[in-house]
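Course assignment 3, question 2. Fill in each field.
Student: A.L.
Task: Predict the tertiary structure for the chain below.
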Amino acid sequence: MTKPFFAVSGWLLLATLSGCDSCNKESAGAAASAVDAGPPPVVKLDVSNPSPHEWTVDADNLPAIAVDGGTVAILVKKEDGTRMYSNATLEIRSVADDKVVSSIAILEADPIVAAEGAPDAFHTTLPAYKKKAQEKTDEAAALLAKTKWMALEDKAASPPRGDAGVAPVVLGGYLVQLRKADKLSLVVARAADKDLTAPVLNVDASSFVVPTRKPPTPQKGDPSCVFTPYVAETALDSAHKVLLVRIAQAVQDNVWGCFEPSQWHVYRFTP
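Answer field:
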């Protein structure tokens, strides 16, 4: 039987887990005293190309965690589907409850498209949008400067996956895997526990599953959009026992127009 081809797509979110509040507070406090801030995160806007399709936002030293372990900074890049304009937002999230503390949208696809469609756009609305984007970049820099950040020392990226039962990702002494039994679960265990029989984290991952749907502009005979979640990226801060996982979506048969933005989840676990 021929296995289907899968293309990449994804979503973006952060969640948190703790074994006990007092344990985590003590652990975070000890970690904060034991680590130093690293190079500061830097958000970089590039709108030098005349075409808005080529405008980008990148970052150095992100994602990052605050030295006290309380917040995480991420540059969220949300996919724009077939239009392929940039969406880039700096998010500061609380590790304790996964809530967004601050959010600054630097580039947004819909306003860019609107600016590009205005009369004499290259002399009016597009320069105005570029100026606004630079102002937002400056705001992001000022926001990041308010906190001392440290890099996540262990990072790993996975190739596109169409099967949730792939081998675990090895990361800084831990194994990370999506497992499907009665339901889909995100499981984390120590590297010595190769069968993940004694996980330090076992989370219901049913919310990672995206329902099958028709493509945006279906033609007769077109297949549906069939998604399969997979662990796309992971990052670990061993000092605070914080794990970040980006869950992306593989698209069966590479159906044009099928995409789903990626999501980050952040979990704090006890040793």
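Instructor remarks: The two ends are 43 Å apart (CA to CA). Residues 53 and 85 are 5 Å apart (CA to CA).
Grade: pending
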